[in-house]
Amino acid sequence: MKYEIKEISTIKRMIEVEVTSEEFENYYTQALSEISKGVELPGFRKGKVPEKIVEEKVSQEGVLSEASEAAVRDNWIKIVKESKVEAVSQPKVEIVKVARGNPFVFTAEFEILPEIKLPDLKSIKVEKKEIKIEEKEIEDTLNWLRQSRAKTTKKDGAAENNDLVEFSFSCLNIENDPEKKDRIVIGKGHYISGMEEALLGMKEGEHKDFETENPQDKKEKLEICVKVDSVNKMELPEINDEWVKTLGKFTDVNSLKEDIRKGIIEEKEIAQKQQRREEAVKKILEKTKFEVPQVLVEREVGFMMDNIKSRVNSELQISLEEYLKQIKKTEEELKKDFEKIAEERVKGFLVLHQISKDEKMEIGEEEINQKIEELLSQYPDKEMARKNMNMEQAKMYIEDELKRERIFKLFDC
C-alpha cells in the first residue's frame, strides 16, 4: 500500500491511496469467505457452499463492495497511525478504481486540527484581584441557614411577607402548557416578576391571573395563571450559640461566621480562577488567527443541545418542543444561535491543545494512576467503583485535566 497526503486547506487534507492488487485480492478472498458463511443452497450445509458458487450467487460486485469497505477501513487506520495526522472527522471516501487483478485506488478527504502559531506566552498577563468580602454576605448566608431550618405551620389566612407559599402555575400564552409546581418565601424577590405580588394576599385554593414580561423578549407580555396549594407560617430559629451548635462542630456564633467567611472566600477564589483562565485564553485568541474545523463546532453545538434538553426537562419540567414554543424558535434557529458560542469554545480548546504540543507536555502513567486512586477513594466501595469505571476513558480525562492545570500554571492561574 502506498499513499500521498495532499493539503486542501489549513484544516483539510486528502489522502490518495493505492492498495496493491495482491493486497486487494486478500481482501476479496476474506470478503467472499465471510459471505459464504451465511449462504444456504439446496444440497449444501450452511456455510459449506463452494466459494465459486457463492460468487455467482451474490455477484462479484457484491463481494467487491465488501472487500472495498474492509480495505478502506484498515488502510485508513494504518495511515492515520503511521502519518500521525490529527484527523478530527470521519473520512469522505471516493473509490477511484476497483477491479480484481488491479490495484485498488481510493481517496479520503477529512478535517484535521489546525497548526496554530501562538504568541509569546510570557506576554499574556492576567490581573489577579484581591478577594474582598462584605459583612452583608455573611449575614445573608446566616439568614439562609435560618430559613432552611425554619419550622413551618400551615395557616388558613392570606399569604403575607415571609410566609412559605406552595403553588401551581402555567402560561396561558402556550397551548396546553403543563402545570408546574414550586414554592417560595414571599418577600425574598427570587422569582419571576409579578409572582410574589400576585401571591401576596391569596389563600389556599385561590386562583389568579397576572402579567409578566417574557425573559426571552422583554417587549412581550406573558399571562400566568397561578393557584395557591398551601400557605405556611415560618418560625425562624434565633441566632445564638445554642442553635449554632446544632449545625455542626461550632462552639459559638463567631466560629460559624468564620467558617462562612472561609467558604465565601473559597467560592470567590474558584470563580476568579475560572474567570482569569477564560481571560488568558481570550487574550491568546486575540493574537492568533486560524481556521476552525466545522466538525468540531457541530459536535459542540450537539453537546449544547443535549445540555439544554436536559435542563429544560429537569428545571422547567417541560420538553424541548414546549420550550421552543415559549421562546418562539425552531430547533434549527436555536442551533444557529449556539454556533458562535460553540466556535469560541472550540477555539479555546484548540489553543490549549497547541500549547500542550508546543510545551511538549507529557503526563506520566504513575501520576495518572495516582489521581485515579484519589478519585476511587471518594467512593464507599472503592473496588466496586473500580470495576464499574471505564478505565480507558478515566485515564484520558485525567490526563487532559492534568495537562490543563499545567498549561494555566504558565499564566499563574
Structure summarized in a few sentences:
With 413 residues, this protein is of the alpha+beta class. It is built from 13 helices and 9 strands. Helix 4 (135-148) packs across helix 7.
SSE diagram, text form:
Layout (H helix, E strand, L loop, with lengths): L1 E8 L2 E8 L1 H16 L14 H8 L1 H24 L8 E6 L6 E8 L23 H14 L2 E4 L9 E8 L8 E6 L9 H5 L7 E8 L2 E19 L5 H5 L7 H34 L7 H21 L5 H8 L3 H28 L6 H12 L5 H7 L2 H19 L4
Antiparallel strand pairs: 1-2, 2-4, 3-4, 5-9, 6-7, 6-9, 8-9
Helix pairs in contact: 1-3, 4-7, 7-10, 8-10, 11-13
Write up what this structure looks like.
The chain has 413 residues and is α+β, with helices and mostly antiparallel strands. The protein has helices at 21-36, 51-58, 60-83, 135-148, 195-199, 241-245, 253-286, 294-314, 320-327, 331-358, 365-376, 382-388, 391-409; strands at 2-9, 12-19, 92-97, 104-111, 151-154, 164-171, 180-185, 207-214, 217-235. The chain is elongated and about 90 Å long. The two termini are 48 Å apart.
